[in-house]
Write a structure and sequence with these properties.
alpha+beta, four-stranded antiparallel beta sheet, globular
């Protein structure tokens, strides 16, 4: 399993609900159609930082998710909401555990 973490700093905190809605409606459906898709998480902290985590079967699939996310930001015209390019970490998941009952 491979994960991609994208950390967006300086997010317009007044538009977090709008961003979340767009992620739900347009980004997650696109990512979930990619081969090897295993999961997606969006995390908001208190410092105007939004972090996304994608899980895929292999590194190429994980890399494709970053390309899709970048295109999505441009296509949805979110450059003002996400003014800084994300810091991206991509790599093999070397340990994990999940609960079968977990649901967001």
């Amino acid at each position: 399993m491979h994960a991609t973490v994208r950390r967006y700093e300086g997010v317009d905190k007044t538009r977090t609900a709008e961003l979340t809605k767009k992620v739900d409606e347009t980004l997650m459906p696109s990512l979930s159609k990619l081969p090897g898709f295993s999961g997606y998480f969006l995390i908001k902290d208190e410092n105007d930082v939004i972090t996304s985590i994608d899980l895929f079967n292999d590194s190429k699939q994980a890399s494709d998710s970053t390309r899709i996310a970048s295109e999505w930001v441009r296509n949805e015209k979110l450059e003002n909401m996400l003014p800084n390019p994300p810091k991206v970490t991509d790599g093999e998941v070397i340990a994990h555990k999940t609960s079968t009952g977990f649901r967001a």
